# Entry
Amino acid sequence: MKGLFITFEGGEGSGKTTLINKVYDKLLASGKKVYKTREPGGVEIAEQIRSVILNVNNTKMDKRTEALLYAASRRQHLIEVVIPKLEEGYIVLCDRYIDSSLAYQGYAREIGIEEVLNVNLFATDGLLPDKTIFVDVTPEVGLARIKDNNRNQNRLDLEKMNFHKMVYDGYKKLCDMFPDRFISIDGNKDRELVLDDCMKIINDLIK
Ligand code: TMP
# Structure
């Protein structure tokens, strides 16, 4: 495909969403064809699935059901948005993708990274990102940020600290498993410095 598929990953409060917005603005200002989207969601059917997954009342949800719903929402979004945009030559910036399922459902929910990867390879026809930027912020710092921001909390935010620590450890494992695709940036730095680090990576990729 002609475009470039870049995904952003990190735990709650890592700052990746703000970062994507700024990266998007910069790329757009420099005249690039760039598209910004997010998971779970990004298109109508996937947004509907998102609201089922994140509904705080769905406390009975089984962990494999959760993994399958994320994979279903991912496929719909991929088919409707990501693949067409890549074919048109866009740089697609996606807030979360397969690796969120590997870290949250595979590792933290203990389904197993390999098992969740298999389900997701089916869902995506094996389409992996060109680069995955992991915004490295510990769960202690990330969750404190969310609390300070007064952001609406979803079903996964309400998990205990131990779950978020597992998610963080899961991401660290993924960085080791996919060293060519993953690149980690220090999300504790000043926001402008985090943006600089990120733009260096993306500009190298574009070259
Ligand atoms: P968001 O807060 O980045 O919008 O993501 C929504 C929540 O869904 C967040 O807690 C991470 C979680 N999530 C998974 O557990 N698995 C996935 O595959 C994705 C995409 C998100």
User: Anything to note?
Assistant: The first strand starts at residue 4 and ends at 9. The chain has one domain: 4-206.
